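Reposting from the mailing list since nobody answered there.

I have sequence plus structure tokens for a pair of proteins and want to know whether others read the tokens the same way I do. The first protein:
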Amino acid sequence: MTADTIKSDRKAQIDALLLNLPGVSARKINGLDAYFVSDKMFACISGDGVGLRLPAATATELHFSRNDVVPFQPGGITSTREWIQINCAEMADYEKHLPLFRTSLEFVKTGRIS
């Protein structure tokens, strides 16, 4: 499987997961496939995973408690403390993170976690 095929498969998997959530839309921004709610980006595909915006404390906790979470560095540029990246070995594993995607969506939409 080529890198382009893997990237295309990951995008299809993430599209299927996120575009079914209420109010979510997708578009490209700075070369990244990004997902928006209320016209604010809450997730994007970058490198080997998916970046998510979460409260800084939650992002920090996930950095230290999970092996599949790394700093979000799109294009090699360090992002803010509110962004993490989830790297899943199997594309289907992203579905297991749906609660975290929902948390990100809610945080970006309202500015808080419900």
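The second protein, same order (residues first, tokens after):
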Amino acid sequence: MNLAPTDPQAYLPEAESLLERLFPICRSITGDGVRATLSILQAGIAMQVEEVPSGTQCFDWEVPEEWNVQDAYVADSLGKRIIDFRANNLHLVSYSIPVEASMSFAELRPHLHTLPDLPDAIPYRTSYYNRDWGFCLTQKQFDSLDPDETYRVVVDTKLAPGHLTYAERTLPGTSGQEYLISTYLCHPSLGNDNLSGVVLWALLLRELSRQSLLHTYRFVIVPETIGSIVYLSQHEDQVRNLVGGFIPSTVAGPGKFGYKQSFLGDHLIDRVVRATFRELDLDYNPYPFDVNGSDERQYSSPAFRIPMGTICKDKYYEYTYYHTSLDNLDFISAEALVQTLNLYLLAIEKLEQNKTYRSLMPYGEPMLGKRGLYPKIGGSIKQKAANMSTDHGDRQYQVSTDRILYGNELDALRWVLFYSDGQTSLLEIAEKTGLPMRQLFDVAERLVQNQLLEIVEKEIP
């Protein structure tokens, strides 16, 4: 199975369209912004939307009241809006309670949030579980405020019993092993964190839904933290057997690729990602597991222990524009998003190809020539002066549109035969030999067709 598209650039128009359509929407952990986002995604990709009522107990948490915004602003005595939610939805602290009042600058000041070290940026702030209100603005805006002015403050929001909304879809496989692909959609107009993850998640779901899969993949899109806790509480029995998974997040920045490993550090999820970077000879930033992150700390909590990894591009916390208005569509790009999507597809391809084989002729090397698996003319194999051009010589293996991996097919064939002891998986062979896993898989399947190998059912480590 080859999952990586022959032309990854074909995803660009849809990635660009989704980024532009979804960026302006004000999202939070509940509310109409979440529904609007899922509705746009549903137009192109089938998924099931679920709603959990406010007040529902989920382990130690409770689904909060639903929050929606009509308008919010701070105006001067002439009625001019100087902080305006309609200009940028980051201006309003998420989950602000309703306010309508006139107040002095001294009264307003405790409710204003700025970033003095990034004077052109509006910070992103929330007050999910604390009944309060506030506005975010650039330091330059703050410095222009008149301390002698009387300000009109309007926060037209509604906090009332409603629902927490999430979506899911399960793509069935045949192996009995299941992986989780989860991301979060609770942030308002922030590009890399995590609109980029939402779009990649949707494109990944659509691509895998077109495939005949060995493993089952459970796709979940939730509000961060409370959403994953709600999901776990409602699917407790089903998720306990998950082998591992990914959390696509911050995947479209201009910097280096990165990988935040699972809490185990050397799980199959970690190994297929490292193998992907190695095969592409692609430099990246490795990050150890850290509980300060996204929903991996929920999925990997003591009751579940699902190993979760994140392939990223400008990881959260690591870039200057994180949680600010400068994390916008100018900072990210559809091109970077599609590059990261290709990495996820190549890593999942390795999960699909990671079979274990047993030799049916283990007493020495089987005769390859009579099966058409050996060059008809001998002597030139491994000869530096020879320029083999046959199918069994130095055939190259392409795994992306911009990089070709080396690898002699006869070498791959011999290594697969050598390690096919019923215990060593293809990923282990790739790790031992440095050969591309796609090449090893293609060779192994040819050997199965020639009745030299058989597939062994083996538990995933």
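Reply #1 (J.P.):
I read it the same way you do. The chain has 13 helices and 21 strands.
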